[in-house]
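Lecture notes, unit on protein representations.

Consider one protein chain, 399 amino acids long.
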Amino acid sequence: MKAVGIISEYNPFHLGHAGHFEKTRQALGSDCAIVCVMSGNFVQRGDFAVFNKHARAKMAVLSGADLVLELPSPYALSSAEGFAAAGVYILDSLGVCDFISFGSESGDIETLRHAAEMIVSPDAESITREWLGKGFPYAAARQKAADAVLGARAELFKSPNNLLAIEYLKAIAAFGSRLSPVTVTRTGGAHDADSGYSASALRKMLLLSDEPWFLMPDAAAQVCIGEMKAGCGPVFMKSGEQAILARLRAVTDFSRAPGASEGLDRRFMKYCASEPAVASLLRKVKTKRYALSRLRRMLLCYCLGITAEDAGRPPPYIRVLALNSTGMGLLKSARDKSRLPIITKPASVRRLDTRAVELFYKEAAATDFYTLLYPEENARTGGQEWRIHPAVIDGMEIS
């Protein structure tokens, strides 16, 4: 069975995402299975996912995916490089995917591949370090390097989907992955935008109590409506501000989080105890050198106890969130081919090695924190990570 991997967040799933599925199958064949690696309850922009991971995985399968796997929180709350590398590692380790599909403004794999090769060249890395030493933000320093080694093609680095595409290609090369890349041309102006569909616009509508269902496949919209009726969403960071600040004020070592370098740990330590709101804390910590998304990711890592060590090593397992009958077939094949243990029943994690167990327990604690932001009090019970099994859309049981 031909299978393609997609690294995603679906926060929430919209018609642009369904269009990506459609265009991918147009390129690879209508019978091509789709395997998604999706951020869990926390997302790369440094935020709570608007709906929980099991609901979002179910949206994806009902809208055309066949198997959805989790990108654990330490990697979802990473830079674009770490996010992409972990996603590629999971897809490659699964052993059943032949391709990886991603959006890009360029739409040209060879141009993107050349950019990915050149940006890790010794010359480019030397130039990046030089500009970092002058106090430039990483993105600006890398753009200087791209300008120097790529000339006019350095424009690729100014488009968000191209940037992620380049990171996927870098990861494929670094791992020696068997995945063949396929790109779908994206016209939206933001990371999560495609042909006018934007997950950020949907989240804004939900925040304002508007109904964005016309921007979503009907099945995905019905999942969202069901979650809202159950009091399990939408989830917004603002709702958990006091809990976040309480956790931050209890932190005693700010040096262990991913990205806690160049004095950022000291800035968090200085302002965490005094600032009355998350927004004002981030304003105090921020300087021109650091993107707000990086600081938001650090803030959540402090809250969740995620360390640089957690994010610095490859994922130790593959967690299944949702699947259909086609995904079931892929999963059976993967059990003989995967380089990582595959988790379908939460209790089975206790048979894995120490690092896998530690990461899963940390993920379970992160879910306990996430569910405290549910609108309905009775939905905020602890231990949900251990009780919720993959959504099997065709009603079959996983053996």
